[in-house]
TrEMBL record:
Domain Pseudouridine synthase RsuA/RluA-like: start-end pairs: 39-213
SUPFAM superfamilies the UniProt entry points to: Pseudouridine synthase
GO molecular function: pseudouridine synthase activity; RNA binding
One Gene Ontology term from the biological process aspect of the record: enzyme-directed rRNA pseudouridine synthesis
InterPro entries per UniProt: PsdUridine_synth_cat_dom_sf, PsdUridine_synth_RsuA/RluA, RluA_PseudoU_synthase
CDD domains linked: PseudoU_synth_RluA_like
Pfam families in the record: PseudoU_synth_2
Name the record gives this protein: Pseudouridine synthase RsuA/RluA-like domain-containing protein
Coiled coil (residue ranges): none
């Protein structure tokens, strides 16, 4: 909540419900040194984590329309009076990680320098649980498991196009993406799509988008990686659904259900199997994994 321009961190921990996922950021869960923050789609995060490349700074700014807002500005306004790190650009305003502009979900914010650097250390050590939900084109096989590929960033592209990552063979940084579950659905036009749960074992720029595109399954609505925006889906279908970490203050584990725009998109699709029907129902209900 906001009180006189300042956000309160004194709220008790409550389950995250769809009604909480409004167009403004908010605290979803908090600990003495670390919080999980809701990032709505359309908000930029122009800070980087340990695994990000310099081009990520450009990504947050490229393709942004006039309605886009910066999460770091909200952090500074909401918490700057009581938390000095929220005013410190050198410490990324306390934001330990970022999400792409059109991606919704939760991310980590350190309310103190100790919490911020502890979260960064856990991210670098691969000790953060990150689960995403996405919708991609084609019938992605559910048994793919852990996929590894080196991603190479194209920071400068022709005609001023936004930066992107691509599988770089022996070059680039190693990305590990786990295809946890996948269910096949059909849209009204008959195209087969895959509703997928993904676990990230690294956190490189556009990792899920690039990895699935490289497998021949670009995300629905992701123009940068070869998809188009169907009329039944209002944005790129990518959502940071679950985030788990323990920096010594007890587990912080937040599960964020699909927001209303993506829920409406899933409801327009027809599951093609019992497994796909169960996965869709679970994601629409926000139930446990």
């Amino acid at each position: 909540q906001l009180d006189g321009g300042q956000a309160s961190l004194d709220a008790t921990r409550l389950p995250v419900t769809t009604s909480m996922l409004v167009d403004e950021p908010r605290v979803l869960q908090r600990q003495p040194r670390l919080c999980a923050i809701w990032k709505p789609p359309g908000w930029t995060v122009s800070v980087s984590d340990d695994e990000s490349l310099a081009a990520e700074q450009l990504t947050a700014l490229s393709g942004s329309g006039g309605s886009d807002r910066a999460l770091q500005d909200w952090i500074e306004k909401a918490f700057g009076q009581e938390h000095p790190i929220a005013r410190d650009v050198g410490a990324s305003y306390g934001l330990a990680q970022r999400l792409d502009r059109l991606t919704s979900g939760s991310l980590l914010w350190g309310s103190s320098y100790g919490g911020y650097f502890a979260a960064r250390l856990h991210l670098a050590a691969r000790r953060v649980r990150k689960v995403y939900c996405c919708l991609c084109h084609g019938a992605l096989q559910p048994g793919l498991g852990l996929q590894q590929a080196r991603l190479l960033v194209q920071a400068v592209r022709p005609d001023g196009e936004p930066p992107r990552s691509s599988m770089g063979g022996s070059r680039g940084m190693l990305a590990r993406t786990e295809i946890a579950t996948a269910g096949h659905l059909a849209c009204q036009g008959g195209e087969v799509l895959s509703l997928v749960e993904v676990r990230l074992h690294t956190g490189l720029m556009h990792q899920i988008r690039s990895h699935l595109s490289g497998l021949g399954h670009p995300l629905v609505g992701d123009a940068t990686y070869g998809s188009s925006m169907p009329d039944w889906c209002p944005r790129m279908f990518l959502h940071a659904r679950r985030l788990g970490i323990d920096i010594g203050d007890g587990p912080l584990d937040v599960e964020v259900p699909l927001p209303q725009d993506l829920r409406a998109a899933v409801r327009q699709l027809t599951p093609l199997s019992g497994a796909a029907r169960g996965l869709s129902a679970r994601l629409l209900s926000g139930g446990p994994e």
